[in-house]
Design brief:
The protein is an alpha/beta fold and about 375 residues long. It folds into two domains: about 5-175 and about 350-365, Rossmann fold (3-Layer(aba) Sandwich), CATH 3.40.50.2000; about 180-340, Rossmann fold. The chain has 16 helices and 13 strands. The protein is globular, with a radius of gyration of 20 Å.
């Protein structure tokens, strides 16, 4: 009897879970694969973690390392410390890591040091800004990985520039798989439970939203620097339109440390993936420092204003649908007021929505057990 291919899948944050969902769904179709899902616990409260598992129908993790928050170095080291005995116990044929968070690098390094092949989903992305922890994570992860699954042609070229030639596959963006599936669900008429709208089903009606802009803000460079945070929020606050702000837990802590008079933002708790898609789809413009939301705005053809000086998703800027404003007050104010890319052409840079299928095909072909 042929042995099963045991694949470890390591994730720890909301963006990780969104990428993992289509992968787990595809794996179900292949009986020769035994997945072992490991949640590092990097995101751990209900709205940042468990809610995503429920909504995206991801199976309960086989292991939860329960790491929690801490500094980047501490968190990365702690994940490695807790992941190693689990990997040694399970002896997987492959470890898959996704994205560019501390869980990504920690999982990749642990597997590589144990001489277990590593697959990196979302390989090759570069912003060339080493002040971003994500840039360090994804660069180092790529250089210890055996399978590099790239979302775009640009990502492939980035790897080649760094001397990486083997194991590169341009499979498209796995987040696009999740987006295509869930935008259909998000667009359906919401149903009621016991006469009440549930939080995971309807948000526009609950908040009575029309003609609004959407803001997300969580990058350390914007939130940990209180001067930058205040400058950004004061600039945004000068806009006359309604702005909805689902606040990240880290940002919420920082907001309590600054004072802004007559802050007009409508601040709400973090929302589910479906509700975020609903908010994005119906927004006039999106203001963000998130990598994932830049793409989702592009796919939805919603103008995106990015509160960063660089981006790893260069295609969205090249197309003219995304503009980088950093924390420059004048740029933020003027762009919110004037940015309108609706006449721009819209290209498909991110594949056909079958990335998970392509990844599994490559792994089955190449892994020998």
């Amino acid at each position: 009897m042929r042995k099963k291919i045991k694949i470890f899948i390591i994730g720890g944050t909301r963006p990780n879970f969104i990428k993992i969902a289509p992968l787990m769904e595809e794996i179900k179709k292949h009986k020769q694969i035994k997945p072992v899902l490991v949640h590092t616990g990097q995101h751990y409260n209900f709205r940042m973690s468990k809610l995503f598992f429920q909504e995206l129908k991801i199976p309960k993790p086989d292991y939860n390392l329960g790491v929690g928050s801490g500094s980047h170095s501490w968190q990365t080291a702690k994940i490695m410390e807790k992941a190693e005995p689990v990997i040694l116990k399970e002896k997987p044929n492959l470890v898959i890591v996704v994205g560019d968070v501390n869980s990504t690098l920690a999982g990749a390094l642990t597997a590589a040091k144990l001489n277990i092949p590593v697959a990196h989903i979302e390989a090759g992305l570069r912003s060339y800004d080493k002040t971003m922890p994500e840039e360090i994570n994804r660069t180092l992860t790529d250089h210890v990985s055996d399978f590099l699954f790239c979302p775009t042609k640009t990502a492939v070229e980035n790897l080649k520039k760094e001397g990486i030639r083997k194991g590169i596959y341009n499979v498209g963006d796995i987040t696009y798989d999740a987006f295509l599936k869930n935008i259909k669900i998000a667009g359906k008429t919401p149903r009621k439970h016991n006469g009440l709208f549930s939080d995971s089903e309807e948000i526009l009606e609950k908040l009575k939203l029309k003609n609004y802009l959407l803001l997300t803000l969580h990058r350390p460079s914007n939130t940990d620097n209180l001067k930058n945070l205040k400058k950004i929020l004061e600039a945004i606050n000068k806009n006359r339109e309604k702005i909805i702000f689902p606040v990240h837990p880290r940002t919420e802590k920082q907001l309590k440390k600054i004072e802004i008079r007559n802050l007009k933002l409508k601040i709400i708790p973090p929302v589910s993936f479906l509700n975020m898609l609903r908010l994005e789809k119906n927004a006039k413009k999106i203001i963000t420092d998130s990598g994932g939301i830049q793409k989702e705005a592009y796919w939805l053809k919603i103008p995106c204003i990015t509160l960063r000086d660089t981006t790893e998703w260069v295609e969205t800027v090249k197309s003219g649908w995304n503009i980088l404003v950093g924390n420059d007050e004048k740029k933020i104010i003027n762009t919110i007021k004037k940015f309108n890319p609706q006449h721009r052409k819209h290209y498909n840079y991110f594949g056909n929505g079958k990335t998970a299928q392509k990844i599994i095909r490559v792994l089955i072909k190449n892994l020998k057990v």
